[in-house]
Write a structure and sequence with these properties.
By secondary structure, the chain is an alpha/beta fold. It has five helices and five strands. The protein has helices spanning about 10-25, 35-45, 60-70, 90-95, 110-120, and strands at about 5-10, 30, 50-55, 80-85, 100-105. The protein has a five-stranded parallel β-sheet, sandwiched between helices. Strand 3 (about 50-55), helix 3 and strand 4 (about 80-85) form a beta-alpha-beta unit. It is globular, with a radius of gyration of 13 Å.
Length: about 130
Amino acid sequence: MSGRILVVDDQDDIRETARAVLASAGYEVVAAPSGREALRLARSEPFDLMLLDINMPDLDGWATLRLVRADEALESLRVAMFSVKGEVRDKVASLQDGAVDYITKPFGIDELVARVARILSAVPSASPW
């Protein structure tokens, strides 16, 4: 499998577990502890996917997602929300704000790898229609 993934989570253990799981599946993985650091990294080097936690101090995942979607330089970056929040309204809001998927934590290793593979294998649409 190939692809560059930016894992964004303020919890060290979750961030490191996701990084290790995805790296062992063959992906190049970079990790960031905050939304601000994720934006800095995404603007300085290319990524195929951002796995973005919602509950983070300072700049949460919702705000980070909106900033990614407002930045023309990042329009091709796919973002999957990554959260303990399992409410349907959170999942729907994420998709409406431009996320391509919503992965609930705690995640299963096989589920995480399968969802990332599915996201990265999908051909991005050139048109929102």
